[in-house]
């Protein structure tokens, strides 16, 4: 049984940005990220190396994808669900401020 079911953040237009982002990825990367999200759903609360708190009500699912790249799905916990707010492929050690701010704005919309 899922301890923390995942839900996609939805824009007022009905679009789901994380779902749209996942669809741009190759099948293998999408599968890896999906498995990592599933592991969080079934094992919550879970810590490193799969999941890490970012502060301000945000968490990240940490995925090692193909070609030595890393992906992150930023989420918050709201109403007993993990709401997937933003997804990105990291190119630097630190999560870019613009990506964090976008996730924070989306979190504020739903809380």
Please outline what is shown here.
This protein has 111 residues and is α+β, with helices and mostly antiparallel strands.
Structure description:
It is a single chain. The chain has 111 residues and is of the alpha+beta class. It is 35% helix and 31% strand. It contains three helices and five strands. The protein has a five-stranded mixed β-sheet with strand order 1-5-4-3-2. The chain is globular, with a radius of gyration of 13 Å. The two termini are 25 Å apart.
Write the SSE topology.
Blueprint: E1 6-8, H1 17-24, H2 27-43, E2 51-55, E3 58-64, E4 70-78, E5 81-90, H3 97-110
Parallel strand pairs: 1-5
Antiparallel strand pairs: 2-3, 3-4, 4-5
As laid out across the biggest beta sheet, the strand order is 1-5-4-3-2
Distance between the termini: 25 Å
Amount of helix: 25-40%
Percentage beta strand: 25-35%
Largest sheet: 5 strands, mixed
Question: Using DSSP, what is the number of strands?
Answer: 5
Radius of gyration: 13 Å
What's the rounded overall pLDDT mean? 97
Structural class: alpha+beta
Task: Using brief descriptors, characterize the structure shown.
35% helix, alpha+beta, 111 residues, 3 helices, 31% strand, 5-stranded mixed beta sheet, single chain
């Amino acid at each position: 049984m899922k301890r923390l079911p995942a839900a996609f953040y939805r824009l007022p237009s009905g679009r789901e940005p994380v779902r749209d982002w996942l669809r741009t990825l190759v099948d293998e990367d999408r599968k890896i990220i999906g498995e990592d999200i599933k592991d969080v759903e079934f094992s919550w609360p879970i810590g490193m190396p799969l999941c890490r708190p970012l502060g301000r009500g945000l968490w990240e699912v940490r995925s090692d994808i193909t070609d030595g790249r890393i992906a992150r799905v930023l989420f918050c916990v709201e109403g007993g669900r993990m709401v997937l707010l933003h997804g990105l492929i990291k190119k630097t050690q630190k999560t870019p401020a613009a990506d964090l701010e976008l996730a924070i704005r989306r979190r504020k919309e739903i809380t």
